[in-house]
Amino acid sequence: MQGIIGKKLGMSHVFGDDGKAKAVTAIEVGPCLVTQVKTVAKEGYNALQLGFGKAKSRQKEQFKHLREFRVADTKKVKVGDKVDASLFKAGDLVDIAGIAKGKGFAGVIKRHHFAGGPKTHGQSDRHRAPGSIGATTSPGRVFKGTRMAGHMGNSRVMARHLEVIEADPARNRLLVKGAVPGARNGLLLVMKSGGK
Q1: What does the DSSP assignment read for 109-144?
Q2: What does pTM read for this prediction?
């Protein structure tokens, strides 16, 4: 098993052996139950579907969140198996995916870190404007992907190679060095990292 579903609890700091403070994010990981096992023979690929969190309505699924994780082999796993924080240990590297905080409509300075225009020499309304967005006759249009003002945030973000500072299977808690995407109580997918 390479991953688990979790929930961001918030940020704090811990002191290392050298006495220096480290910023950490606390994540509630699992317990997750295997709700479906997908195989090459039936679905065309190997994967495990995990369920996390209690659903509000009992008429629908038992779990609030269902997510799929690809695996190399499904022979040792069956429906109903539990996955928890014991999957990780201190020193492991993990990749964490989540939905970034939505910032609404943002200009180019906030969204793309543009420098803005000059504040003197006759410029009265160019302080936070993007400047030129393309040439004239050739190509006679604005290229796709040109960085402009627009909707910022609220998109899937992956934070890679974060170090696990502490794994506590008894409380289903993980302390990860640094920040992870999303707001407090946001859904996260925590996966073992492929390497440094």
Answers
A1: HHHH------SSTT-SS-TT-------STTT-SPPT
A2: 0.83
